[in-house]
Every structure is written in structure tokens, then in C-alpha cells.
Write a structure and sequence with these properties.
The structure is a homodimer. By secondary structure, the first copy, chain A, is of the alpha/beta class. The first copy, chain A, contains eleven helices and 14 strands. A seven-stranded parallel sheet of chain A has the order 3-2-1-4-5-6-14, with helices on both faces.
Chain lengths: ~325, ~325
């Protein structure tokens, strides 16, 4: 049995807990929280919840610690800290800061002899893996990543910070026409506006100036100004009834040419359609937690990403079973 | 530079040659053929063509030998034979015989200290990899593989063996309705007939009994009897004009459930749309030839499949570059 710990218990932590329950070779040993442990109710029976301050007393009781904090403030501190004491895995998703995070985690985990996986999930994660594979196969080609339809937490939060807004939910939606052009192998050059639209469902305070709010959303730099944005004002009840899920997904497409005269076109498409973004991310993480455990057992150490893991390490099956049943 | 040899020069061998030309870190050293070498004309300038009997004299001049023979008779003999002298890679695609082929190749390559990759292409190959990855992520789910629309060489050959048939081309076509049900997450149980149809374009000899030919095709066991099959009789000119390409492709879909009560559905879809089956297969092989070279350099040996290769090994870029640009 692979003994797993969860560090941070929000949507992602709960997803990891559920995913562990689907994998018979794994067991959840403990959940660590910054809140009062008695206030945290798990999905599973019989698993202890502890304050994060107690984590080091579990040093020999946990094979892989899954970090479920945020990329902005939690993981840059927590992952290097815990990698000194545990094999760890996180879903650090600030793309621009991955090299820095890698260096920090690599230094500590190498010194401690632990395996530390970072940036595991679907983007970064499975989408990255598919960009790598497709690019190595179709050397002469172009890459496209479309996100959605799905909820962007960051954009929803940005709307909530506008004066007069009570609550909001933002969907990122790929432009179907652009997708079709890519799928046809046209290899178009697409602007930000041509790739995605943004749709916002906003609950305003009573008496708020709706046209000011709409204008502030649509002109917000970085978040909305470069997109065609639609704003719908709805009631709190409608928001809770119709927009409480956390669906997401997207598609990575590579279109490339082969042949003596580049006469043949090929399209590789990897598409995710997810009812629950955190539960799918958690499922990816748990599969790679198994790989983390395997790599440690093999005597490896240091920081790893999805690029470094032989796919067979994700599976509880033997090489022989995999070749017989899946190859 | 990675020095590559091609053993067998048909459609696949020519595809490998073109793919090597797209990869600046690789160079084609020699092509080996069973035919008279002077009768073989390559796409590239300045590369020697040799009879297969001369292959051992290239022992220290080739880093990876790419085997481009057939799975029925060539590869079961050639791959173990050459794995004693070279690092090799093949596209052995008789799924049921992969375990046996693996054992034969593993024994020889381990003894010789060579790396030998087998069954590289898209199915087996990239489709297998996606079945493995998706199954490890969505543990509670169902797998679907659809092939086509594309030309099946084996089925085309089977038609050509019927008396009165001059030439033929067979397309395998996924049933759109079944595909849509899978994509909607219905996880249906599908019979052979419900998944694919077969469309045949047949050139008959003058005076042949067309209804007998049609009947023989549609009732042919294993090949056509379990499918809804359409037969079109056309002229040799029409066949050459409209059906000379070798397109193929297909899709691997996994649909799975997560959450406390399995309340969330997720779909992972990997889709290939290929103008040229052999050129795409060749492009996959050449990327894995780089991995073969890397594994050998690291001191590994023995038989490997796509399941064993860390994805970063496929790329000429460094780990740092990959993390910065693709993760």
C-alpha cells in the first residue's frame, strides 16, 4: 500500500481524497490543515485530520505528501519546505514561475534524497505532455491550446472585486470557428480575441450601476480587455442554481506536415471535457503520486515533472500486464 | 548527430527517411534492402543503399537501426537478429503476439547491451500510451478505440485475393452515432458492428460476376462478416485517381467517473487525423529513435516500449528548455 498524506483541504484536497479511494493500492493516512482540525469534515471514515504544525511527526508514516494549496502564496513556500522531509507532489500552475519553483524544490529534494514532483494536473500536466509528444512527432508544425468551456476562478475573482458586485462566475469559451480552422490543418495565426470569448454571470448589489459594472469588466486590462466579453446580470438564486459546478476542459492540437515536399498534413488532438476541474486535477495527481513512490523506491531523487516519468510508473499493473492488455 | 540506418525500404522506410530529414540532430547513414541496391532510388541525396547482407559491416557506424519490414514475417526474425548488433526500433503491430516478440527481443538485446524498442507507431504506440495514461487517471471508467476513416491494407489485400478482383481499396469508418454516445459519457457497450462500418472500392475483371464478388466480400469471416459493409465497383482509373492516398487515423476515448458518489463525468479524447499512415508512423518512430539513443547512452539495455520511455527523451531540447517552453 502507498501511504498518502494530503496537505491543505479545499476543493483539490477533497478531490485527492476521493481519487485515493478509487485506487486500491493507496491509502490515505492523514489530512493536514491550517484550520482548526475539529472543524474539517472528510469524505472518508477513520482518517485523522491534523494541524499543519504536526506534519513532521508523520515523517515515517507517509510515502507521498500531496500538496493542495494555491500557486500564488502556498506552494512556493510549502513544496520546498515539505520536500526536505517527504516525497511530495504539487500542482503548481503559474507557468512563468515554473523554472524558479523547479530550482527551489530540486535543491532541497536532492539534498534530502526525496522525489518531488511539481506542476502535475492538466495544464500544466497532461496538456504539457501532449504539447511535448505532438511537437516531437510532428516537428514541422504549429501548436494550439484552447481552454474551456469552463470556469476560470481567477477571472471570477477579478469580477467580484468590482464595487457593487456581490458574486460572479466567469466562463472561458473557445471560438468554434478558430477551432475548426485549426482542425482542418490551416495552421492559422490567431490573436487572443480570435481564440476565446468570455462570458460572465454577475450578481449585483441592489441599486448598483449595472452599466458601470459591465464597462469595468469589459475594459479590465489582462483579464477581459483583449477578449469579446458578454455580461449577464442574474440573481443570487440563479447563480447558485445554474452555475455552482466547476466544469472545465480544453484541447491541445498540433497540426504538422510530412513528406518529401511537405505534401501531407496530420492533426493530433488531445481533448478534455471535465465536469469537475479539481476532481480531474486530483485524479492526475494521484496517478503521478504512484509514480513518485516508484521513483523513490528506485533510488531516484530531486524535482521531476510529467516530462520525466515513464508512463508505466503511473499504473499499478506490471510491465507484462500493460504490454499484454494495453499495447 | 544521431546516426540512423533504415532496414527495409517500402512506404514506411521512405517515411522514416523523410522524417529524419526533418530532425536536424539526426543523419541517415545507410538504407538496407533485400532488392538489388542499384534499383532503389532514395528521396535524399548522397546516402548509400546496401544489400541487407552487408548490414553487419555498419556495426560501429549506426546508432539506431530502424526496422521497416512487416509484422507477419519480417520483424519476428529481423528484430531479434539485428538487436544483437545494433540498437533497434520497430513497429511490430500484431497485438496478440507482442508479449512473445518482447521476450525474444529482450533476451538478445539484454545480452548484447543494446536498447531495442518494439511496437512504436500510433496503434500500437501513441494510442496505447493514451489508453495507459487515461486509464491511470480515470480509474473508474471505460475505454474506446475507434479507427478511421482510413485505409486498411489487410482488408484491401483480402478483397484482392477474391477471384475476379483486379484491385481494391477498403476504408474503415467509425460509426458517428456510437462516437457521439461515447463522447457524451454514456459509456455504452458496443458490438463490433455498432463501432465501425467498412466501405470497399473494387475493380473487377471484365465479365466477372459482380454479385458473387460482393457476396464473398460481405460474408468473409473475421474481415467483413461482423460489419455493415458497402461495396462499390469502380474502374481502375477511378481507383487510381480517387483512392491512391493512404489516409488513416482514429480516436481513443476514456470516459470515467469521479467524486464521492461518482457524480462527475470526465472525457479524455485523443484523436489522430492523418493524410499518410506510413509517414505519421515513421514520424513517431523517429522521435522514439532519439529516445532509444538516449537510453543506450544512459547505460540502459533490453527491450522497451512506449510505456517505458520518459517523454523528455523524445525531444532534442534540454529539461530546462522543455520546462520553460512547454510545461
Amino acid at each position: 500500500m502507498i501511504r498518502v498524506g494530503i496537505f491543505g483541504y479545499g476543493n483539490l484536497g477533497r478531490g485527492v481524497e476521493c481519487a485515493i479511494n478509487q485506487n486500491p493500492d493507496m491509502t490515505l493516512v492523514a489530512v493536514f490543515t491550517r484550520r482548526d482540525p475539529s472543524s474539517v469534515k472528510l469524505v472518508s471514515q477513520g482518517v485523522g485530520v491534523y494541524h499543519v504544525d504536526e506534519v513532521l511527526s508523520f515523517k515515517d508514516k507517509i510515502d507521498v505528501m500531496v500538496l493542495c494549496g494555491g500557486s500564488a502564496k502556498d506552494l512556493p513556500v510549502q513544496t520546498p519546505y515539505l520536500a526536505e522531509h517527504f516525497c511530495v507532489i504539487d500542482s503548481f500552475d503559474t507557468h512563468a514561475k515554473i523554472p524558479e519553483h523547479f530550482e527551489n524544490v530540486d535543491r532541497v529534494s536532492k539534498k534530502a534524497g526525496n522525489v518531488a514532483m511539481i506542476s502535475v494536473g492538466w495544464d500544466p500536466g497532461m496538456f504539457s505532455l501532449n504539447r511535448l509528444l505532438a511537437g516531437c512527432i510532428l516537428v514541422d508544425g504549429a501548436d494550439y491550446t484552447f481552454w474551456g468551456k469552463g470556469v476560470s476562478q481567477g477571472h471570477s475573482d477579478a469580477i467580484r472585486r468590482i464595487e457593487g458586485v456581490l458574486d460572479a462566475r466567469q466562463y472561458t469559451i473557445p471560438v468554434e470557428d478558430a477551432l475548426e480552422r485549426v482542425r482542418r490543418g490551416e495552421a492559422p495565426t490567431l490573436t487572443t480575441r480570435e481564440k476565446h470569448t468570455r462570458e460572465c454571470f454577475v450578481v449585483a448589489c441592489e441599486g448598483a450601476d449595472l452599466s458601470r459594472i459591465e464597462n469595468e469588466i469589459k475594459t479590465m486590462p489582462n483579464y477581459f480587455a483583449d477578449y469579446d466579453t458578454t455580461v449577464h446580470f442574474i440573481t443570487k438564486e440563479e447563480l447558485d442554481r445554474d452555475h455552482s459546478g466547476i466544469p472545465h476542459g480544453g484541447v491541445v492540437i498540433r497540426s504538422g506536415k510530412t513528406g518529401k515536399e511537405r505534401e501531407n498534413t496530420h492533426i493530433i488532438e488531445y481533448k478534455l471535457t471535465l465536469d469537475s476541474n479539481p476532481e480531474f486535477t486530483a485524479s492526475v495527481i494521484v496517478a503521478y503520486a504512484r509514480a513518485t513512490y516508484r521513483m523513490k523506491k528506485e533510488g531516484l531523487c530531486g524535482c521531476k515533472t510529467v516530462f520525466d516519468v515513464p508512463p508505466a510508473y503511473l499504473s499499478p499493473l506490471s510491465g507484462e500486464e500493460l504490454r499484454r492488455n494495453l499495447l
